[in-house]
Amino acid sequence: MDAITKAFYQERPDAAHVAERVAFGTSGHRGSSIKRTFNQDHIYAITQAVVDYRRQADYQGPLFLGFDTHALSRSAWECALQVLAANNVPVFVEKGHGYTATPLVSHAILQHNRPLRQEVNNSGWADGLIITPSHNPPEDGGIKYNPHHGGPAETDITSWIELRANAYLLRKLTDVPIVPVEQALGHAQQYDFTAHYVAQLSDVVDMGTIQQANLTLGVDPMGGTALPVWQAIVAHYKLNLNVVNTTVDAEFAFMPPDHDGKIRMDCSSPAAMANLLKIKDQFDIAFGNDPDADRHGIVDANGLMNPNHFLAVCIDYLITHRPEWVASLKIGKTLVSSSMIDRVVASHGRELYEVPVGFKWFVDGLHEGWLAFGGEESAGASLLTRDGNAWSTDKDGIVLCLLAAEIMAVTGKTPSEYYRTLTERFGEPFYKRVDTPCSPEQKAAFKNLSAESVTETSLAGDPITAVLVNAPGNGAAIGGIKVTTENGWFAARPSGTESLYKVYAESFKGEQHLDELIENATSLLATVLK
């Protein structure tokens, strides 16, 4: 990792090259120091652009600054702090300058801003920066911005920051003020993110019932920021919970390779979760989190749960076990999440809120309190507190793990047993994602698709019931297309970082029908992407 860190400081990105510019995706800016896509200059430029945005938006409250356990994160955190201190921005960092999980930063922003929501102006509002590439390989770096609502910034905000940051890069940072690291560390105020978060967990999860059930629980923080949080949870709530891995190693050398041989801390991957799966029989239920703790992995006697399956379980359970929640609250899902969720929500007479890929689409609903739950197929979700207030408006992998324990404590069923009861009621879905090579011309063609682009009337033997290029929940562009029938669907969208497009498909008629769906989808796309 020495070479990675050395390159972070020594390699200078050239903003004249598009590949080396700041580029915000669905979860902030990510990159590699070796490839000059995540370097000191990027952090200086992005942080100054965030300072400029704060001034424009009249944010005068503190900025909550967190970082995870990736090799470059501490260095990037110090760089951000240098710029924030130089601009005299009040900054709150974890006590002892420790790392900080994404949901803790989101929760802290919301806690600070809640009393200010009735104010006529926003001058006291807080926001946050989190240094993390999420579950990406150890050598990667990332940074994301969460404004006053505590969740991932909207596209108009990230576009503004991106444009501003790249202008600073083009000017070689000549107008970005920077103070020495020692001065910057002295400027930061220490804040006990972990203590505040852990003490309030009973607001969102029934911790008392989990305590009384005395379940045997296990958790693997996968070398990430969830480690001190889980340790604090054990101490505070006296749970019968074993933190099975307390190692923090920037190289993540303890990690088994993912399905493609790369080291990737993906708690939704059976390959990456192999260490916990080996000892699953020691526990009633066990969990995993990724390095910034915004994702969850749920393990019981049947192995690692498919994230889609667990989302459906959570939704069915929450609708029937949150009596304080009013019936008008909507349930959010991304359009590539399982249609099992649609069937569960409809069975309770609730309204489904279906949005494009990206957790940012759930932020307003959670923040304003009209969306009870928002979840995406990649094992990220959050929910309202038990009395219907915002808990976190970014993904919270820790709370979702605790919710799995609550479900078992209350119902006596493991999450996978609970899911089996759903398949008995609604049928069993079969789900798959396939990646297909994609030319630049095909990527561009995705942007021009419309409902009229599909002239076929059937898909895998069933009549087509809808062709979507905009999400039905909020009308936002999908960035691709979704075609549905009564018994299945497929969705396709181009990758933002690789030369391929992703096809998601699901069938309620079996694996053979699922293969037919994918085959038909591939043929259809070959026609409409010409």
Describe the fold and architecture.
- The chain is built from 17 helices and 22 strands.
- It is α/β, with parallel strands linked by helices and 530 residues long.
- It has 3 domains: 1-195, Alpha-D-Glucose-1,6-Bisphosphate, Chain A, domain 3 (3-Layer(aba) Sandwich); 200-426, Alpha-D-Glucose-1,6-Bisphosphate, Chain A, domain 3; 430-529, 2-Layer Sandwich (TATA-Binding Protein).
- Strands 1-2-6-5-3-4-7 form a 7-stranded mixed sheet, with helices on both faces. A 6-stranded antiparallel sheet has the order 17-22-21-20-19-18, covered by helices on one side.
- Helix 3 packs across helix 6 (181-187).
- The two termini are 44 Å apart.
- The mean pLDDT is 95.
- Pfam families: PGM_PMM_I, PGM_PMM_II, PGM_PMM_III, PGM_PMM_IV.
- This is Phosphoglucomutase, alpha-D-glucose phosphate-specific.
- It comes from marine sediment metagenome.
- GO terms for molecular function: magnesium ion binding; phosphoglucomutase activity; phosphopentomutase activity.
- Its cofactor is Mg(2+).
Cα end-to-end separation? 44 Å
Number of helices: 17
Give the strand order, joined by hyphens, for the main sheet.
Answer: 1-2-6-5-3-4-7
Overall pLDDT: 95
Q: What name is given to the CATH topology of the largest domain? A: Alpha-D-Glucose-1,6-Bisphosphate, Chain A, domain 3
Could you provide a short overview of the structure?
Residues 22-167, 196-303, 306-425 form the Alpha-D-phosphohexomutase alpha/beta/alpha domain. The protein has helices at residues 2-10, 40-57, 73-86, 102-113, 155-170, 181-187, 193-199, 207-213, 226-237, 274-278, 307-321, 340-347, 363-368, 397-411, 415-426, 440-446, 511-528, and strands at 24-25, 28-32, 63-67, 91-94, 127-131, 140-146, 189-191, 217-220, 241-243, 285-289, 296-300, 303-304, 330-334, 352-355, 371-376, 380-383, 430-437, 458-459, 462-470, 477-485, 488-494, 500-507. By secondary structure, it is α/β, with parallel strands linked by helices.
